[in-house]
């Protein structure tokens, strides 16, 4: 771009800026500032999340085999307990269904 074209663009930009009222200039400046702050905040949050994810991966690599086995056994115990509770509920439900069938059959014979 020639110096003349750059100079002309600069003059037109400053003319447009000077054509704004002081209130409009403040609003543009406030909006631009808010945008910069928001962008920086989002970027910083993204960097922090990446850093925490890396630290978590490193921590998981450091955990010994025994600790992993222990945590898996604890999780298994919880799952087995849930399975037993569900099996008990299923058995109780089946018993109630059988009782209902018997009472309906008895009512049918009596009626």
UniProtKB/TrEMBL annotation:
Keywords: Coiled coil. Residues 1-23 are annotated as: Disordered. It comes from the Eukaryota. The keyword Coiled coil applies. Residues 1-18 have a biased composition (Low complexity). Residues 76-106 form a coiled coil. This is Uncharacterized protein. It comes from Polytolypa hystricis (strain UAMH7299).
